[in-house]
Amino acid sequence: AALAYQHMVDQRPGPQSYSRAAHLRWLFGDLDGAIELMALAVQAHVVSGSESTAWFQTRLAMYLFQAGQFDPAEKILTTTLARHSTYAPALLVLGRIHLAQENHAQAVKIFTIAETINPLPEYQWLLIEALLNNGQTELAHAVEQRLKRTAITEDKRTYALYLASVAGDAALAQQLAKAELDVRQDVLTKDALAWSLFAAQQVPEALMSIKQALSTGTRDARLFYHAAMITRAAGQNQQSLHWYQQALLLQHMLYPSERENLFSTFVKNQPHVTTVSTE
Fold it and tell me: How far apart are CA 133 and CA 10, in angstroms?
């Protein structure tokens, strides 16, 4: 894929080739390279104000958010939403920035609009998290019911993660993750399978799957969080602490319930472990 995308960039440099190469950089753990290429995609896109421009800008904002550059990311999203006020992916990233900053009421407002436009499991899960952290338990329950009605057909992978993380149905989570793996044998699907196996207390199998997910060098907070939990359960304490520290560097990318579970496992059980990044 890397060779093919390099040929594409050489023959026809432009937003389509830059954005694909950026995603590949991200998959290999090169966030700075991904930001550089996606910025080129935004600059090279000549159809100003189109929905494709909004997509490029939103992807760039997501990479900047991962890099901890909240203000530049929010500025790009504000520009995008000024032209496309109902562009749900931009609203999703903007809501995540507010959620990471614990601006729960604002996150609820943004996710509510985004979920109305795109009633998909990822949007619904984030809205549930924001509502719960804003003390709106009944509304969160109502959103969860909507999620459960349609999630299997809409997004098996996200629903598998939700079931393994929140709903406690490890058997269905594992079934959905395996079904998704038949379609998409990528890093994030292998991670979802690992997490569902872990929820089912199948630690050796989960360990094998998470190692496969980590093998490309992808830097992803949820991937590191899962790796920390699984290696800890497997008794690999040094590896577990390493992945905990990696997740800690990207903790703003985790959902609130994931951060709480990570900290309660490592900090409360091991008081000498810090929650402060030393990067």
Answer: 48
Joined together, the tokens standing for residue 16 give: 């389509």
Q: How far is CA 209 from CA 195, 216, 243, 273, in A?
A: 9, 13, 15, 26
Whether the full predicted model's pTM is greater than 0.85, yes or no, is: yes
- Which tokens is 75 given? 């500025």
SS3 182: coil
- CA dihedral of 52, 97, 242, 187, whole degrees rounded to 10: -30
Helical packing angle, 256-263 and 121-133, nearest 10°: 70
10 Å CB burial of residue 16 (0-12, 13-18, 19+) is middle
**pLDDT (tens digit, 9 = 90+) per residue, 75-93?**
999 999 999 999 999 999 9
82 within 8 A of 239, measured Cβ to Cβ: no
Radius of gyration of the chain (CA): 19
Residue 138's Cβ-count burial label (10 Å; 0-12, 13-18, 19+) is: exposed
